[in-house]
Amino acid sequence: MRPWNFSAGPSALPLEVLQQAAAEMTDWHGCGMSVMEMSHRGKQFMQIAQEAQADLRELLAVPDDYSVMFMQGGATAENAILPLNLMGRGGALKADYVLSGIWSNKSHKEAQRYGDAAVAASSGAAAVIDGVTQDPWTWFPEPEQWRIRADAAYLHLCGNETIGGVEFATWPDMATLGVPNVPLVVDASSHFLSRPIDFSKAALVYAGAQKNAGPAGVTMVLARRDLIGHALPACPSAFDYANVDGANSMFNTPPTYAMYIAGLVFKWIKRQGGVAALEKANIAKSQALYAYLDGSDFYLARVHPKVRSRMNAPFFLRDESLNGEFLAQAESAGLMQLKGHKSVGGMRASIYNALPMEGVQALISFMQEFERRHG
Ligand SMILES: *Cc1c(COP(=O)(O)O)cnc(C)c1O
């Protein structure tokens, strides 16, 4: 059996997907070529790309007036591509950002290169919530308190802070917040396809593939079409949504192999019963893990329960001198890549779609046993 892989990204892919890719590696569907070796404009790859796009549309029920684009550069490049495409809309060169952890801070910093990127809200200070003091970046600011400028070209938030383990998934309705003309933009990189997306709330969603949807190298951008066509003159032509959308993600050579693998993941998700079925499994998996952490005096989860991520669970040993031993023994037990991000410390279990309940249970059993021996 393969070990359980808790990597935050690039992360575990479904074994079935890897096996199918292996079987098709040198000869895709009898055409005598690997997917890596075929023209992106040939009939074989056109079929792969069209199916991937159609499957993604179906899985997320993407409305017809949204474009589904496959781009390159990861979410980090998208942090620049986004303001380059949207900030000029309306002419104010303004955008507002909700800061909830490392990734949203990076997005905000990048946008400042292109215009007036302001902070609408931040969880970067400690806060008392329900009588409990929460550390910075372990809670989420209530939408009613966000300061959104009516002439902002968009409001940006990170749906799931991969490093801090903070997930904010009940996205607000911008009209209810009093700014119906400000589109909501979400970096959904690390919870993409783990739950449905409400497109009545989000005007643009982007996600690098390597957390939950495929290998590194392809970024999915789902954008309402009225947001396309406003790029600043400085926007590179390969990153202009109008060019990418206009050429159906074939403006230049797309990341063909990464798209092919992502397409296999989409088909795997369909076989699992779709995104709703995976959401159910993800709720069960994360609840099992957090319930165990909350019931233990040996471990500690610091994120406020209302915004705990279903995908990335940071946790701590109360006696941090045991960290090294914990990680070494976990690895011997076949539980890989549990070390927390250096900025947070402790441990982090990333339990994406491809990590089944069985893997979560293996982790909990190991943690119980470790606690029994050291507690
Ligand atoms: C991983 C991640 C990124 C950065 O992705 P790259 O592919 O390294 O550019 C950005 N945002 C979130 C939420 C992420 O999880």
TrEMBL record:
Annotated pathway: Amino-acid biosynthesis; L-serine biosynthesis; L-serine from 3-phospho-D-glycerate: step 2/3; Cofactor biosynthesis; pyridoxine 5'-phosphate biosynthesis; pyridoxine 5'-phosphate from D-erythrose 4-phosphate: step 3/5
Cofactor binding note from Swiss-Prot or TrEMBL: Binds 1 pyridoxal phosphate per subunit.
Gene3D superfamilies, per database record: Aspartate Aminotransferase, domain 1, Type I PLP-dependent aspartate aminotransferase-like (Major domain)
Residues annotated to bind pyridoxal 5'-phosphate: A75, T76, W103, T162, D187, Q210, N252, T253
Annotated positions of the N6-(pyridoxal phosphate)lysine modification: K211
Record keywords, A-Z: Amino-acid biosynthesis, Aminotransferase, Cytoplasm, Pyridoxal phosphate, Pyridoxine biosynthesis, Serine biosynthesis, Transferase
Gene Ontology molecular function: O-phospho-L-serine:2-oxoglutarate aminotransferase activity; pyridoxal phosphate binding
Annotated Aminotransferase class V domain residues: 4-363
Binding site for L-glutamate: R41
GO BP terms in the entry: L-serine biosynthetic process; pyridoxine biosynthetic process
Main location: cytoplasm
Pfam hit, one: Aminotran_5
Enzyme class, first EC level, given as a word: transferase
Catalysed conversion reaction: 4-(phosphooxy)-L-threonine + 2-oxoglutarate = (R)-3-hydroxy-2-oxo-4-phosphooxybutanoate + L-glutamate; O-phospho-L-serine + 2-oxoglutarate = 3-phosphooxypyruvate + L-glutamate
Domain of life of the organism encoding this protein: Bacteria
Location(s), subcellular: Cytoplasm
E.C. designation(s): 2.6.1.52
Gene Ontology CC entries for this record: cytoplasm
Cofactor(s) in the UniProt record: pyridoxal 5'-phosphate
Function: Catalyzes the reversible conversion of 3-phosphohydroxypyruvate to phosphoserine and of 3-hydroxy-2-oxo-4-phosphonooxybutanoate to phosphohydroxythreonine.
Family: Belongs to the class-V pyridoxal-phosphate-dependent aminotransferase family. SerC subfamily.
Name this protein carries in UniProt: Phosphoserine aminotransferase
This protein's encoding gene: serC
